[in-house]
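Our preliminary data section would be incomplete without showing what the modeling component actually yields. Below, a chain of 424 amino acids is followed by its predicted structure, encoded as tokens that our downstream tools consume directly.
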Amino acid sequence: MDHNKTTIGSAARSGAVGTALLTDELHACFNYFCDNFSRSEAAFGLMPDRIPDVKGKSSIAATGYMLAAMAVGADFGWISPDEAQQICHRTLQTLLQLPSDKGFYFHFYETATGLRYKQSELSTIDSALLFCGALTAGGYFGGEILRLAQLIAQRADWGYFYDPDRKMFRMARYDDVGWVAHWDYFAEQLMIYVLAAANGFPQARTAYQSFGRLHGFAPNGQDFVYTWCGTLFTHQFSHAFVDFRNITDADGFDWFANSVTASVNDRLFCAGQPQLYPDGIWGLTSCATPDGYCGRIGSAPSGNNDTEHISDGTVPPCGALGSIVFTPAESLAALDVFSRYQGLAGPYGLYDSFNPSKGWVAHCYISIDKGITLLMGANYLRSTVWSSFHSVRDVPLALDRLGFVPKHTQKQPPRADKNTNKNN
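Predicted structure:
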């Protein structure tokens, strides 16, 4: 196809055709997880960080997405419930035997042996994604899967990562330098407060209230809390599991509405640079680029006076598709463009990213990117992940402990100025 002639007007293909395109992409994402997790005895179920897996490196976060993918696959009829449960059961047994500390997992493991990959860090967020994926599978299948998933999640000692001086969770621990960074500003970490509260950690609500909120404005005039690099995954990952629709926190803040605005902001940002993002292409988030993996692909506003994001024309399809619950029409329109871009589709659906201004396509798949596409698409079509995760009794209890209430009982707070920390 001549991508320079593709227009967003073809969003007319949304509707039934758009849903069919989405379902095909979700099925391809599921096949990606089903075909590529480790079958070795010592590491059964561990999911490679990316495919091709040239380093023999599995990602514990990607393994969480794989477990949730089994629930989605069974719900959509792409795998028998019995086979999906067997995969989940063996994977959860693997997880109980992996090297870990204080109930938390290292970021990476060897795909063949299940041993810690080099000196990878002990990670809160990657462990949290694993816990959420396990609980999603547990909520969907129940029984022994739920018991094992809860056992794994409940082993996490959240007090170990809590800094009582700053009243925040630390991000990670490395062998050589010790603790690294805090969750001091809003990013993808909302799920960790839910998980900590579900475990009964008494400072979970304090930690939730203590991180900073950077306020900025989208081109349409709406204010929202943005993240340091302006990347969309930070507005998506927690929402893949936690259903923030129709609830607000104790201050009346609506995180779901915030992600809607962040997604609209990204689309408008890209629309303002048609030389880099033609044909209605949008969705800037961490991904493979012509210069290697980059965690700063994003849109303004961003940290340090809008200097922390990188917008070089590289676009991962998971950016727009991971926002489908927030901007369904716009995300389906983007999928229409992606589906007709020459060379962007491979054996497991859309490749990780492409750069139309450079005529470049990444011929690889990154697991967490395929994961967010699959889970958000399943939520959009059937609420599969939301309903499964929330069926675990501790999840609604955790939201209550954090102070979340039905949306109609609270009013939105007054609009804040740009670059203000809510807690200062």
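Residues 1-14, 410-424 have pLDDT under 50 and may be disordered. The chain is about 40% helix and 15% strand. Preliminary results of this kind motivate Aim 1 of the renewal.
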